[in-house]
Design brief:
This protein has eleven helices and ten strands. Helix 1 (about 5-20) packs across helix 11. The two termini are about 25 Å apart. It has two domains: about 5-40 and about 90-130 and about 175-255, Rossmann fold; about 55-90 and about 140-170, SIR2/SIRT2 'Small Domain'. It is an alpha/beta fold.
Length: about 260
């Protein structure tokens, strides 16, 4: 692992590594894996750490199917509060830099654990949302899904009479089979360079993705404030706020790679 303070050095060294990949620029496949740290610069709290959501709220009371069964009103209140908070915020330079990288045809896929839609609002296209979307609600009885454009004041109801639930993945729940299969395929077979941005690497099965990519020969670059359980397998770790470091990294990469 090489920890860098300047992205210039990293980009130069990365280019040396890219030259070793037996592919030309058009075939190069960069994949991004994002977590809540990428949205911190937009003013959206992360889950863990000193200002994280789990400091003030108990995950087991709010983000499990058992919690929803016990007290759906409370769970909806919490999600409605978060929806309101997110609607007030905008994508930051880190989100936009991934859009830029995709428009340059270098970023092939963006796998996100975030439910906040900020990658969509930044106009990224090839997004795989592995933990769902906070602006979607679903009916567990009849399967209907609806979009929410504002924070609900009451738990939303389905036309079939059942209460809808947030369409996000809670602890102890399986990830959507089609989505997770696609994500594994991308990580295993369509990834030369993996950018791991703003995730603690603690939540499975996504925490395995960097390890799978590494085993399959991908080059790993991590952007985070701190070291994580992923750092020791990363080829480069760029410490700092991703809204600053990632944007700088992408600009420099695009300048040099053309
Ligand atoms: C910055 C920054 C800045 C800050 N710039 N960086 C072993 C194997 C497999 C599964 C398990 C296992 N052990 C336990 C499990 C079960 C569980 C799990 O992983 N638990 C762990 C906590 C141990 N996993 C599950 O239950 C999953 N389902 C599953 O595995 O099904 C099969 C199964 C079930 C049961 C048992 C065994 C197997 C489902 C996981 C669903 C996670 N859901 C949540 C909530 C989503 C909905 C919502 O938003 O309300 O997803 S929890 C929360 O964590 C959210 C996130 O997507 C996820 C990851 O968090 P993330 O994004 O990494 O955020 P943080 O806060 O952890 O980290 C932020 C990072 O950013 C930090 O590193 C900062 O330093 C950094 N940062 N500012 C750059 N400006
Ligand atoms: Zn229904």
């Amino acid at each position: 692992m090489r920890t860098m303070s300047t992205t210039e050095t990293i980009v130069t060294q990365l280019l040396e590594e890219i030259k070793k990949i037996p592919k030309n620029k058009n075939q190069l496949q960069i994949v991004a894996l994002t977590g809540s740290g990428i949205s911190k610069g937009s003013g959206i709290p992360t889950f863990r750490g000193k200002d994280g959501l789990w400091k003030n709220y108990n995950a087991m009371d709010l983000a499990t199917p058992q919690a929803f069964k016990r007290n759906p009103q409370l769970v909806w209140e919490w999600y409605a509060w978060r929806i309101g908070l997110i609607l007030d915020k905008e994508p930051n330079p880190a989100h936009y830099s991934l859009t830029k990288l995709e428009e340059a045809r270098l970023l092939k896929w963006l796998i996100t654990q975030n439910v906040d839609s900020l990658h969509y609002r930044a106009d990224s296209k090839n997004i795989i949302e592995v933990h769902g979307n906070i602006f979607r609600a679903k009916c567990e009885k009849c399967g209907v899904k609806i979009m929410l454009d504002k924070a609900p004041t009451e738990p939303p109801m389905c036309a079939c009479g059942n209460m809808l639930r947030p369409d996000v993945v809670w602890f102890g729940e399986s990830l959507d089979q089609v989505i997770i299969t696609k994500a594994y395929e991308v990580i295993s077979n369509e990834c030369d360079i993996l950018l791991v941005i703003g995730t603690s690497g603690l939540v499975y099965p996504v925490a395995d993705f960097p390890f799978i990519a590494k085993d399959r020969g991908a080059f790993i670059i991590e952007f985070n404030l701190d070291d994580t359980p992923i750092s020791h397998i990363a080829d480069f770790v760029i410490h700092g706020k991703s809204e600053e470091t990632l944007a700088k990294f992408v600009d420099e990469l695009l300048e040099i790679i053309d």
